[in-house]
């Protein structure tokens, strides 16, 4: 099974943004050493506790510090940008790091309404135009315009992936012959139905192309289930804090998370969020990942792990990789 890493560059309460971004680089190096297929970084804007606003910038830094792991923007929020510029940026990365660059495409705003307005005067209109924007982007990536090139032109173009949490995104990916990523960790939708829609709708964009499915999950693994539950507590409490407009100080320590008082409503929300995650020892996590791969007909599982201590995060990926027989 192929495994990959999704990183939001979270900032712990004892870190600066600079330190969090450096930990992202160290995580990519660890992922490469552990045998993970790819390392993607998310795009978020003005969200307290997340340092990754420009994943395309971070990939240039991380690419220079790694050698083989595939690198990707997961995701570029296409309604904010002109497709030509997106193609240029990723072609530049693919020129610097041959046959290693993925281009994840999404339609979410990535921040508050105020931030969306600061980024883009026409976001909603561009969301409606998303099918046209995707076609235009692929037009440049596939070098179909005889008059305009998104140069530099790498020997191996970036690989486009459509990210989504609905059947709409699945159909858009399939109809355009683009690989598909379903974000299970942030969706209550019927994910397996979406991936089936994608597979049924898939029309090859290039000769010999086959559909590819990644499912993105949130997971925390440790030597024991109890330890994994303890480590996961920090990210769960942090999410509750962010839902209330708090959490500006970043991911709380495990002890701070233990001491955080929860209302009855928050306890219900906590249980729901925990249900969306995979938390356990290596054997438990392996079993759930294998089941998810089967249910989604997935070619690959992409894992997002958020912890207070960066060492716990690397250890989680190490244990999962070893249990699922990656090269370590």
UniProtKB/TrEMBL annotation:
Residues 1-295 form the Luciferase-like domain. GO terms for cellular component: cytosol. It holds the Pfam family Bac_luciferase. GO terms for molecular function: oxidoreductase activity, acting on paired donors, with incorporation or reduction of molecular oxygen. To bacterial alkanal monooxygenase alpha and beta chains. This is Luciferase family oxidoreductase, group 1. It comes from Natribacillus halophilus.
């Amino acid at each position: 099974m192929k495994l990959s890493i999704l990183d939001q560059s979270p900032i712990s309460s004892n870190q600066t943004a600079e330190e969090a971004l450096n930990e992202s680089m160290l995580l990519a190096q660890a992922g490469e050493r552990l045998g993970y297929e790819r390392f993607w970084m998310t795009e978020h804007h003005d969200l307290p506790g997340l340092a990754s606003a420009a994943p395309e910038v971070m990939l240039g830094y991380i690419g220079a510090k790694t050698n083989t792991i595939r690198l990707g923007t997961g995701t570029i929020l296409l309604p904010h940008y002109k497709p030509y510029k997106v193609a240029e940026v990723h072609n530049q990365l693919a020129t610097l790091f041959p046959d290693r660059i993925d281009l994840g495409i999404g339609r979410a705003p990535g921040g508050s309404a105020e931030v969306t307005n600061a980024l883009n005067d026409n976001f909603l209109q561009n969301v409606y135009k998303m099918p046209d924007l995707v076609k235009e982007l692929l037009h440049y990536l596939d070098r179909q315009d005889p008059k305009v090139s998104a140069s530099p032109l790498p020997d191996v173009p970036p690989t486009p992936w459509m990210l989504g949490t609905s059947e709409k995104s699945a159909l858009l990916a399939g109809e355009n012959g683009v690989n598909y990523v379903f974000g299970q960790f942030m969706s209550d939708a019927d994910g397996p139905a979406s991936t089936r829609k994608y597979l049924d709708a898939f029309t090859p964009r290039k000769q010999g192309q086959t559909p590819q499915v990644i499912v993105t999950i949130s997971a925390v693994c440790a030597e024991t289930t109890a330890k994994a539950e303890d480590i996961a507590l920090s990210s769960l409490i942090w999410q509750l804090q962010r839902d209330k407009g708090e959490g500006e100080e970043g991911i709380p320590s495990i002890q701070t998370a233990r001491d955080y008082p929860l209302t009855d409503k928050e306890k219900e929300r906590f249980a729901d969020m925990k249900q969306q995650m995979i938390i356990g020892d290596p054997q438990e996590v392996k079993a759930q990942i294998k089941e998810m791969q089967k249910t989604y007909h997935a070619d690959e599982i992409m894992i997002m792990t958020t912890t207070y201590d960066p060492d716990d995060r690397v250890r989680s990926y190490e244990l999962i990789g070893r249990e699922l027989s990656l090269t370590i």
